[in-house]
Predict the 3D structure of the following.
Amino acid sequence: MEWEHLFDDLEGQLAAEWESERAALDAESERLRISKVTLHDRLRVMSAHDSRMVLELGGGQRWDAVLRAIGADWVGVSAGGDPRLRIAPLTAIESIAVDHGTLLGSLAPDPPDGGLRGRMTLGFVLRDLARRRVPVTVGRRSGDPLHGTIDRAGADHLDLAVHDPHEARRVRSVRGFRSIPFTALGWVRLEDASGVV
C-alpha cells in the first residue's frame, strides 16, 4: 500500500511540474507574441469596433474621439461630437487613452485585415483630397491651424492654397500658399462631408 501512495505522489508531482513548465512556456510564448504587436495592429483591432478613446496630440491637444478608420500611417477619427473626419498621422499621436477592456482586446492574436484602406498612406489620402478639391483645415504641430484646399501632395509634403473657411478655392479668394512637410502635420480636418475617406 505504501508503494502505491509513493507512486501516486510521484505521478502527482511530475504532473504538477509538467503543468507548471507548460504554463511558463505558454506565458513566455505570449510575451514573445506581444513583443511583435505594433501600435498599428492594435489600432486596427480598435477600429473594427469604432472604439472611443482620448487622443493626445502634440501641443497639448486632447480629443475625445471615436476611431473611424486606420490607414498605413494615419488614423481617421470624429472628435468631440463633430461629425467631420479628422486625419492624424500616427507620428503626431503622443498617447491614446482607452478603457482597460479595449486595451486588452487590442492585443488580439490575429488583427483584422485592414484591406485597401489599411494600406493607404497619408500621402495617398492627401493626394485624393487634392484631386477632389476638398476644403480642409490643417493643424500643424506648432502654429495656428490653416484653412484652405490642398493643391498637391508630394512624397513628404503638401501644398496648401490658404483661403477663408466656407469659400471655394478661387484665384481671388486665395490669400497665400504654404508647403507643409508631413512631419509638421498634427492633423487634417475635412470640412466637406463628401470628402470622407
Q: What stands out?
A: Helices lie at 2-35, 39-47, 100-105, 115-119, 122-132. The longest strand covers residues 61-70. Strands lie at 52-57, 61-70, 74-79, 82-89, 93-97, 135-140, 146-153, 157-162, 176-181, 185-190.
